[in-house]
Amino acid sequence: MAAAVCAPCLLGRALAAAPSQPSDPGFRLVDVTAQAGILFHHNNGAYGGKLLPETLGSGCAFLDYDADGWQDILLVNGSDWPGHKSGRSILKLYRNNRNGTFSDVTRSAGLDVEMYGMGVAVGDYNNDGFPDIFVTCVGQNRLFRNTGAGTFVDVTKSSGLGGRLAFSSSALWFDFDRDGLLDLFVCNYVKWSA
């Protein structure tokens, strides 16, 4: 009669015998965040209530918002929960300085807006050649139209997207009906009430 084989025991022995150090991949990644001028702290609003949105992190987009041929960075932020306010947190837009550094242009770009952001979708919905920004949120999602002059305007209400409170996690711009204009698909996580 053959002896029974203990699969977890064999796996444990194989892992113990494996080399402890991985082979050299041929490159190194170096954290240059602070050196590049990216000073961002994500606020998930945690206060001890252990709410689901606190666990999800936030979105990020690389976009050439000023059409200078260099990728800029948009970092989405959360906020404090109602009744637990400790400060103000906003998303951040960093303009590429074309030398390995970035400048925070959030305020001058008109994006100094507090919201509990989750994700971001970038697309030129009005076909003017400049990328627009849709931020998914817990609460009111926001649509920011790029003016082409280095600034954004909140067009959430005028676009018909206002008054739709949700827990939206992500979104996608695409031309659903092939009319040459981008349509918006929004993913809602759950029905949310705070």
Structure description:
The structure is a single chain. 6% of the residues lie in helices and 30% in strands. The strands form two sheets. Strands 5, 6, 7, 8, 9 and 10 form a six-stranded antiparallel β-sheet that branches. The protein starts with 6 loop residues before the first helix and ends with a strand. The protein is globular, with a radius of gyration of 22 Å. The chain has one helix at residues 7-17, and strands spanning 60-63, 72-75, 92-96, 102-104, 117-123, 132-140, 142-146, 152-154, 165-174, 183-190. It is built from one helix and ten strands; from the N terminus they run H-E-E-E-E-E-E-E-E-E-E. The mean pLDDT is 90. By secondary structure, it is mostly beta strands. The longest helix has 11 residues, at 7-17.
Give the gist of this structure.
This protein is mainly beta. It has one helix spanning 7-17, and strands at 60-63, 72-75, 92-96, 102-104, 117-123, 132-140, 142-146, 152-154, 165-174, 183-190.
